[in-house]
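Bit of a strange request maybe. I'm writing a small parser for structure token strings and I need a real example to test against, not something I typed by hand. Could someone generate the tokens for this chain?
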Amino acid sequence: MILVTGGTGFVGSHLVPRLVSAGEQVRVLARQSVPLPTVEVVEGDVRDLSAVVGAARGCRAAIHLIGIIREQKGARFEPLHVGGTRNVIRACQEAGLRRLLHMSALGARPRARSRYHKSKWQAEELVRASGLAYTIFRPSVMFGAGNSFFPQLRSLLHYPSRRAVSLRRPGLPVIPIIGRGLSLLQPVWAADVATCFLAALEKPETEGQAYELGGPEVFGFEELVDLVAEEEGIRKPKLHLPAPLVRPVVALLSRLVPSFPLTSDQLTMLLEDNTCEIAEMRRVFGLQPARLAEHLSD
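Reply from user aminoacidic:
Good idea to test on real output. This should exercise your parser:
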């Protein structure tokens, strides 16, 4: 039995069916009971230690996927990323699980400027100190059915009209590009990330290791905006906005308008490069990662 936290989320929706197809019995910890064929769903919150301990009993490994990219009411980085990871580790220890696969993020580091990356690093530190046979994965921005980055980018292109999104009509008269639009991103297909998790379960050499995951191509942020705009049929001029002027506006609007497609923390991350070397990913997991153009329409 494999315990998956976050099994109903973006990566989980790609990984759980693969685990089942591989013949694994899967138990998913979810905040709400949802029907998942051939999967045991246990209702509980990762922030509740007793719920995680109960879900871990009888399992041989745990895959910890839970994460949020933006804070909302009732969902904060530290309690979920750090506190939730601490509970998963304790549950593994109490239930006698030795194997833990942990989802982090490319850019997680001790002196990160974003609170998201800081909390992801703190969670990694807990995993490394756990005494468990861990494997850590740090993917760049992911794409595929159900993901958040590219739909958020589409929302930004269509903003402010929700109706415009559904009718594929432009919202703002220009496409806003914050800063020079040159920050580099290396999008990786969610199914390739799932492949790495699945393979790591059967590869003892991945124990005690951390792997950075990225796609075969690197894009400037403005290049990605152009690709999505073309996919959406949006043709309008771009306007470069100085980051120092945009920051206070984003900070205000993200507090006042819950649906605003960008937070201050996300803005900080968008202005940073997010790339990695993927030779190790290819070698260890025998993977030729998919190109963005193959799945952008997903």
